[in-house]
Amino acid sequence: MSCASKNEAGKNDPIYRAAVVDRFVDDQNLMEEVLGFNRKIIAAKYVQKLMVGRVAVNMTEIDSFYNEHKTEFKRKDDEVLVLVFKKLNKNTAIKIKTTLDRNALDSEKTSEMISKNKPERAVFKRRSLKEGLSKRLFGVKKGNSLIIQQDDGFTVFYILEKFNKGTLKDLVFVSDEIQAKLLAIKNHQLKEKIIDSLGVEYAKP
Questions:
Q1: Is 79 helix (H, G, I), strand (E, B) or coil?
Q2: Given CA atoms 48, 54, 59, 62 in this order, what sign does their dihedral have?
Q3: Which of 3, 31, 107, 134 is the most exposed, fewest CB within 10 Å of its CB?
């Protein structure tokens, strides 16, 4: 939708039209408030424009942050890492389970089956699961699988790894979280720097 069409849609709003008819839009205090609001939006959008492409986080920074803050990444609950095959018919689910249980994860048969069915990799916390599912998932040994019937078909869970509460999460499990945190910090710092710089350069004499 173009800016023009958006503006027309706003003008056709019945409440806005009522305000026009009542000449409420001519109120000077309201106009000053609207102008001030618009200035803030333009200023914020301008700063965002100046920030584009200027912030990045590399793996060295992520690794350094992880090593300096390892205690923040201890598990607060038992966890299980699984491959999840969703929305399967019964025969496909049984075939996947049989292939997983009889072959190594890196075997040709397993690799072909995984590539074909595109499972999701997921981590589940014990307390976040319903009791029945929790008992079944945490009751299966690493390297084994189970089938669960659900409303949208059958789901196969393959247990990749189990982790106890209090153990340290490996970097691979928290790198995205660290990257997001570092990006947020850098963006905030850059935003403050730009605002300070513009404030000095364009301050009234």
A1: strand
A2: negative
A3: 3
Q: Decide if 44 is inside a domain.
A: no
| pLDDT per residue as tens digits for the range 135-186 | 999 999 999 999 999 888 999 999 999 999 999 999 999 999 999 999 999 9
Amino acid at 81: L
Q: What is the pLDDT of residue 6?
A: 52
Q: Where are the alpha helices (DSSP H) in 22-89?
A: 28-51, 59-68
161 contacts 80 by C-beta, under 8 angstroms: yes
Range of the domain at 107: 75-163
Give the total number of structural domains in the chain: 1
In a domain, 202, yes or no: no
Q: Which residues contact 52 (CB under 8 A, 6 or more apart)?
A: none
